[in-house]
Amino acid sequence: MTQFIKYFILEFAIIFAVGSLGYWVLKVPFNLNQQLLSSGTAAAIIAYALVWSQNRK
């Protein structure tokens, strides 16, 4: 569980930063709710996949 949380936080921060940069580059109005939802969902999927793949070894 601790590995999942570590991966989740790392992936969430990366995806949130890149997504926020995308809003700025494209000059689109920033939507915090959409950014949090998409970053959280993607981070959870990636973190789960990383933990799952490590447990299979």
Description:
This protein has 57 residues and is mostly helical. It has helices at residues 2-26, 32-55. The longest helix is centred in the first third of the chain and has 25 residues, at 2-26. The two termini are 17 Å apart. The mean pLDDT is 94.
Which keywords apply here?
single chain, 57 residues, mainly alpha, elongated
Backbone shape:
elongated
Number of helices: 2
Radius of gyration: 13 Å
Strand-residue proportion: under 5%
Element-level helix/strand string = HH
Instruction: Report on the biggest sheet.
Output: none
Distance between the termini: 17 Å
Annotation, overall tally of beta strands: 0
Q: Ranges with pLDDT <50 over ≥5 residues?
A: none
Task: Tell me the structural class.
Answer: mainly alpha
Helix content bin: over 70%
Mean pLDDT reading = 94
Brief rundown of the structure:
The protein is mainly alpha-helical and 57 residues long. The chain has helices at 2-26, 32-55.
